[in-house]
Amino acid sequence: MKKILIANWKMNLDVEKTLQLARDYKKELKALSGIELIVAPSLPLLIPVEGIFAKTKIGLAGQNVAAFSTGSYTGEVSAAMLKQIGCKYSLVGHSERRQHVAEIDEMIHKKIVQCYAGGLIPVLCVGELLKDKENGQRDSVIINQLHQALAKVPDLPEKEIIIAYEPAWALGTGVSVEKEDLLHVERIIKRAISSLFSESFYNEKVRLLYGGSVNSKNVSNYWGIEKMSGFLVATASLDAEEFSKIALSMK
Fold first, then answer.
1. pTM here?
2. Which of 45, 78, 152, 197 is most buried when burial is the number of CB atoms within 10 A of its CB?
């Protein structure tokens, strides 16, 4: 499967800084090939950023998507709308949304369904809190998140999905997951997906990413994991040169 690198800019930048970062990306990444490069800017800036990335190979993702297709849902944006303005993907179930806006598993499941209905590929984020890790509940938390999000998604074995493992305790902390732990989590995810659907679906349709304090200095630690397709990068993605170094290390 093709390698993929996703930049999640979150809500870190104002309008001008976002547009300047997009211009910097265009300059730094213009010669890069062989890797799928995706940027998730803040919602109001998707269209101007898409304009800057025109005639480049840099794609777009939504940071969030509605659990509904259309209707009286103030503040929501549908998968179809994101698709119409140039997005190919949307993040779903990011730990910050689970934590800060109480996004529950039922809502995440609905968002997965809506992504497919609207023509997007979901990037499902799973991972444990620090207390889960300390209490030895990491595996059960991840398995439950996968089952709650993906069970009963119509025709999922015929579709593509990205699973991003991003433990909340590693986000923006400078503390990253050890390779041995990531290998273990990959086995847990494989077992959960295979039990829900099939091992062939996992092997052929699922791309696995890691997110959590990834930077150009530690990214090489994670290669050698057969199923690893790339990374979901936040803090390091706010510097175009640093993001480019991560991308180059993946070639």
1. 0.96
2. 78
